[in-house]
Each structure stands twice: as structure tokens, then as C-alpha cells.
Amino acid sequence: MEGKQYELAASLAEKYCDFEILIQLCELSHNTDRIEKYLHQFSDKGFANLLYTWYMKEGKRGKLLALPISQQRELGRFLQKEDIKSLSWLHNIQTNNFSKAHTTLLELGKMEQGSLAKKKVL
Description:
Elements: H1 6-15, H2 19-29, H3 32-41, H4 47-58, H5 61-65, H6 72-78, H7 88-94, H8 98-111, H9 116-121
Helix pairs in contact: 1-2, 2-3, 7-8
């Protein structure tokens, strides 16, 4: 990657299932089609979960929520983790699951301890 030999790096990363490198390459080249390809190609090897975690770690929550429709069910399960549950209601609205969004917001509101204003908004 440092030598900007991206295709060679991608080939090696695919061969050795180095998902972190594949994600970085896709981000550098802004190649969402390749991300989709890897989501299908490595679906049984945990690529999606690593991608979701990477987006969260990098602060790219918008990209996380903008993933293809085919990933919505798996993304929904990922967003149910306690530490990132605050995004799951947005995902529920995006997938037209309004009652689940309602329930999630209600739970988040009940759990909020730090700010009365935030509690009211939730």
C-alpha cells in the first residue's frame, strides 16, 4: 500500500483474507462497488462485522448507515450492541421499522442519566 500498488495489495489481501487492508483500499479509492463485492465474497468469514466495527472506529457512521440494502439485516444485529444502540433507531427508520425505532428511542430515553434535555428529546 505504501508503494501505491493498490491492485497488487488488494490481490494479496484477498488471498490472505486481510480485511483491514481491503477496507482501507476501498476507502482510499472510494470504491463502494468493491466493498459490496467483499461483503458477498467474504460473508462467511466475518468481513461485514469487521467493516461495521471499522466504520464505527473511524467515525464514519454515515457510511455505515448507507450500506447496501442486502446488508440491512446483519447491520441491524450489529447495531443492537449496547455501546452503539443509539444508532439502531436511525437504521430502523431507514428500513421502515418504525415501531422498533420507537421502542429503541424509549429505551434510550429511560437509560439516559447525564442530561435531562437529551432524555426529553429521546
